[in-house]
Design brief:
The complex is a heterodimer. Chain A has 5 helices and 5 strands; from the N terminus they run E-H-E-H-E-H-E-H-E-H. The two termini of chain A are 20 Å apart. Chain A is an alpha/beta fold. The longest helix of chain A is centred in the last third of the chain and has 17 residues. Chain A has one domain: Rossmann fold (3-Layer(aba) Sandwich), CATH 3.40.50.280. A 5-stranded parallel sheet of chain A has the order 2-1-3-4-5, with helices on both faces. By secondary structure, chain B is α/β, with parallel strands linked by helices. Chain B has a domain of 379 residues: Methylmalonyl-CoA mutase (TIM Barrel). In chain B, helix 10 packs across helix 16. At the A-B interface, helix 1 and helix 3 of A face helix 4 and helix 18 of B.
Chain lengths: 135, 546
């Protein structure tokens, strides 16, 4: 049997808006992923540590407070320091296209803004996982 | 069944039906037609009565909007206190009648601008306030005797109130003339918005302290705005919003009564805050049911004798979660319908969202259109000329009754769990809301529910062409350096002395309000006051469930 894709759904910083993170976590679980949810108010350090401990394939970060340009780069930097090159950092929240492009240039995966389809998010992670294993 | 009804029933069942789910925004089946047999037990005087009369189903004032229109109150705040001060002056100049302050996340969480966890959040989703110094700038040139101010803040609410009291004194306004509202609704933070700091028990004590203080010193101040808005935004159904909000309200009332306060001394200053979502009739039924349930409980269960204690006064905000990032101009139309539902539901004040809010904080142009939407509603459509025009509609009265019954069922469930706080600790509300949010999203994914521009009628290659408000990184730098300066220039001995007195009051169950006002005047920061109280009260951590 195939190994389940392991995803850490994470909320960082002071932002408490967890509707999206919870809906995404439940969707991933129903899609057959192994989901770990961090709960609220995690620092970048805590998130990366949890990702290592739980040996996840994907970190899905939810930021709705406008602090995405601070939090995503921080998590990404720590992941690089830890040599987590085979882990995908993706996420979603309220962020403009320009910011999304900037983050993707830095090495963050696809980002999902308001109105995104969950089916697409699931497909994206599955595709990423399959293509990574082919390497 | 009458002949006519039978004939109609057969005919409508035979008629071809379009392929759609006929459910409300909350996923409830909708009756195809209102009929007299839905209201067999209907008693006009008992169930509706006249506006301004018990149980206030039709409204709380005898002449409603003919006396005074609803207050048009746009929530605003971003960047530095100077930035928001300018936006306030702009809104007042454009005919807005009350102020409503949006704070940034560090302020909402009781952290100073230079706290490590504040990095990247300063001034981003609201105005940054760390001390009375910032508050002085925020209200510079605004005579608070002439405006009413609403402050959306919860965990550090009593600190912001202490700042406001200090401002009033500086402007020479006597406290009995100070008008406004502070959200101060901590229960819905545990339930939905998650901006809590302390555990529930000390948080409730703080709120009762504030009620006690305001009842004596600030008679025109609304002490809690008991909020369903965030519960709905977190994904609840309309009935859950109604039931959980009222249950929270009753929990505050019981806590204040346990302190020995007379219900009629504080209940008239409690107000409510509801969401106005997409489903037009469901929302109107919710507002009407809320007034009726509240009046009955206040009079019959809690024994309030003052008629003003029976009145459920409420603010409405259109539903932020219904706005779409795609084709954002369509949001103007959504907001207009939602605002109409609020007005037909008898709201006392209204915030209309701006079309660009799923993308960023609203631009000046978007805010102006949102305000103009209310003005068109008030001055052009004629809906404010008459009161509760949907009353007596079989469909609406049936929907109102169903809303009330569903709320009562939830009240029983909450009671079985031991009350609101035990239900929070058991994760009951959080699970109910998460389940409803998941179901709603699945309806969209399956296209059982259409969202125009999102899963239907999409524009391919859409380019968004509305100006977005950008918050400069300079805001954080400025706020941090101002704070550094403040810490150097103030009398630090005095600050420490005030913080010690605050801690002692917390330990000895004394009312915290006077101590906080003293701290505020000594220019102690929010973070210093919050952390002092953390030493006594501890911090709350929620179990991570989904």
């Amino acid at each position: 049997m195939d190994k389940k894709i392991r995803v850490l759904v994470a909320k960082a910083g002071l932002d408490g808006h967890d509707r999206g993170a919870k809906v995404v976590a439940a969707t991933f679980r129903d899609a057959g992923f192994e989901v770990i949810y961090t709960g609220l108010r995690q620092t970048a350090e805590m998130i990366v540590k949890a990702a290592i401990q739980e040996d996840v394939d994907v970190i899905a970060l939810s930021v709705l407070s406008g602090a995405h340009m601070t939090i995503f780069p921080k998590v990404l930097k720590l992941m690089k320091e830890q040599g987590m090159d085979d882990v995908l950092l993706t996420g979603g929240g309220i962020m403009g296209e320009q910011d999304m492009h900037k983050l993707q240039k830095m090495g963050v995966g696809r980002l999902f803004g308001p109105g995104s389809s969950l089916t697409e998010a699931v497909a994206y992670i599955k595709d990423w996982y399959t293509s990574r294993r082919k390497k | 069944m009458s002949d006519g009804k039978q004939k109609w029933q057969e005919a409508q069942l035979k008629a071809p039906t379009r392929n759609a789910k006929f459910i409300t925004a909350s996923g409830e089946a909708v009756e195809i037609l209102g009929t007299p047999d839905m209201l067999k037990d209907f008693d006009y005087d008992r169930d509706l009565s006249y506006p301004g009369q018990f149980p206030y189903t039709r409204g709380i004032h005898p002449n409603m909007y003919r006396g005074r229109l609803w207050t048009m109150r746009q929530f605003a705040g971003f960047g530095t206190p100077q930035d928001t001060n300018q936006r306030f002056k702009y809104l007042l100049k454009n005919g807005q009648t009350g102020l409503s302050v949006a704070f940034d996340l560090p302020t909402l969480m009781g952290r100073d601008a230079d706290d490590p966890l504040s990095e990247g959040e300063v001034g981003v989703c609201g105005v940054s306030i760390s001390s009375l110094k910032d508050m002085e700038v925020l209200f510079d040139g605004i005579p608070i005797e002439r405006v009413s101010t609403s402050m959306t803040i919860n965990s550090p609410a009593m600190i912001l109130l202490a700042f406001y009291v200090a401002i009033a004194e500086k402007q020479g306004v006597s406290l009995d003339k100070v008008r406004g509202t502070i959200q101060n609704d901590i229960l819905k933070e545990y339930i939905a918005q998650k901006e809590y700091i302390y555990p529930p028990a000390p948080s409730m004590r703080i709120i009762v302290d504030m009620i006690e203080y305001c009842t004596e010193h600030l008679p025109q101040w609304n002490t809690i705005s008991i909020s369903g808005y965030h519960i709905r935004e977190a994904g609840s159904t309309a009935a859950q919003e109604l039931a959980f909000t009222l249950a929270d309200g009753f929990a505050y009332i019981e806590a204040a009564m346990e302190r020995g306060l007379d219900i009629d001394s504080f209940a008239p200053r409690l107000s409510f805050f509801f969401n106005s979502h997409n489903d037009f009739f469901e929302e109107i039924a919710k507002f009407r049911a809320a007034r009726r349930i509240y009046a009955k409980r206040m009079r019959d269960k809690y024994g309030a004798k003052n008629e003003r204690s029976w009145l459920l006064r409420f603010h409405t905000q259109t539903a932020g979660c219904t706005l779409t990032a795609q084709q954002p101009e369509n949001n103007i139309v959504r907001v207009a319908y939602q605002a109409l539902a609020g007005v037909l539901g008898g709201t006392q004040s209204l915030h209309t969202n701006s079309m660009d809010e799923t993308l960023a904080l609203p631009s000046e142009k978007a805010v102006k259109i949102a305000l103009r939407t209310q003005q068109i509603l008030a001055y052009e459509t004629g809906v404010a000329h008459t009161i509760d025009p949907l009353a007596g509609s079989y469909f609406i009265e049936d929907l109102t009754n169903k809303m009330e019954r569903k709320a009562e069922e939830y009240f029983r469930k909450i009671e079985d769990l031991g009350g609101v706080i035990p239900a929070i600790e058991k994760g009951f509300f959080q699970r109910e809301i998460a389940r409803a949010a998941y179901q709603y999203q699945n309806e969209i994914e399956r296209k059982d529910r259409y969202i125009v521009g999102v899963n239907a009628f999409q524009d391919e290659n859409e380019k968004i062409e509305i100006p977005l408000l950008q918050i400069s990184e300079q805001v954080e730098k400025q706020q941090v350096s101002k704070l550094k300066k403040l810490r150097q220039e103030r009398d630090n001995e005095q600050v420490n002395h005030c913080l010690d007195a605050l801690k002692k009051a917390a330990e000895n169950d004394l009312n915290l309000m006077p101590k906080l006002i003293a701290c505020a005047k000594a220019y102690a920061t929010i973070g210093e006051m919050i952390n002092t109280l953390k030493e006594v009260f501890g911090e709350y951590v929620e179990p991570a469930e989904f």
